[in-house]
Amino acid sequence: MKQIYTFGNYLKNKFNSKVYKVGINISGFTCPNIDGTVAKGGCTFCQNDSFSASTNEVQELKGFHLNLDSKENPFLEKQLLQLEQQFVSISSRQKREYGAEKFLVYFQSFTNTYAPFETLKALYEKALSFDNVLGLSIGTRSDSITQETLDYLSELNKTKEIWIEFGIQSIYDETLEKINRGHNSANVKEWIIKSKKAGLNVCGHLIFGLPDESKDMMIDTAKEAYRWGIDSVKYHPLYVVKRTALANEFISGKFTPISEEEYLDVLVQTIKLKPTNVSVQRVTAGIDDDSLLAPEWCKNKNIQIKNINKALKPLGLKY
Predict the structure, then answer these.
(1) DSSP line for 217-269
(2) Between 20 and 30 A from 229 (CA), which of 193, 194, 281, 319?
């Protein structure tokens, strides 16, 4: 069996080291379709109460949110401290448990370019100053990045490994409207192409099982994302968690989650179509706690991976 070209393969080949992503969650960051800038309520699958400070050290930041028009950031020093504490804690564990040698700081939760440029610059440069950090991976939305930030990241990319991760989700605007995404597909395409022209590495997130989408629509989204020139991909099934608009639709019978059989079918077909140079960072997602409403198959990731490998076997592939 041949292993799918994973992001781990890419990093190992490029840096000849065990490179791990250190997921960071900075308080004060939010999203433009949560704060009302482009929409209200967030994406229908998003648990909005997760967008608040939770640690004791940053309780005073709770309720404080930045955006592109924020004139000042009185909590920048606390955010920088939070960044350092999280990096030290997580990277130490990754060294101890997995033998990690080098790191990418992954600005993971929230929309991580949705803040004043000086705040972003301070956070990114602080992250790059840590020992054995090779670069950054920045999760964001295509409607929440400025040309100034893109140009700055392009400069950083000349000496560091810089990735930007965009939530593509679907190329169908009717779907994006149903999930209250707050922007259209053309906007995602525009900023992915701009990012590629700026020399950045781009990861695209795709969700299979969005409301009323057929298999062909899901596969079309993957095809188009590949055409836009993404360098890496994350595949997600849409699952339903409590305290979301999608949960209300599920409970009222207006939304039926994707079956594991259909997800596997779409996943295998999109992997088969994937250009060989595009690395895979994720093949599924789920949550193993009582917040998951459906589908039940998204609860156990080990079983999911086992079934994915079974589905990939006829292609001579494994994850």
Answers:
(1) HHHHHHHHHHHHT-SEEEEEE--EESSSHHHHHHHTTS--PPPHHHHHHHHHH
(2) 319
Residue 85 lies in domain: 2-318
Burial group, residue 254, by CB count within 10 angstroms (0-12, 13-18, 19+) = exposed
CATH (domain of 81): 3.80.30.20
Q: Say how many C-beta atoms besides its own lie within 10 A of residue 315's C-beta.
A: 13
Q: Is 3 helix (H, G, I), strand (E, B) or coil?
A: strand
Return the DSSP state at 4: P
Q: Which pLDDT tens digit goes with each residue over 235-287?
A: 999 999 999 999 999 999 999 999 999 999 999 999 999 999 999 999 999 99
* Burial annotation 38-58 (CB, 10 A radius, 16+ → b, else e): bbeebbbbbeeeebebeeeeb
Which tokens hold the place of 276?
């060989």
Domains identified in the chain, total number: 1
- For 128-137, write each residue's pLDDT tens digit: 999 999 999 9
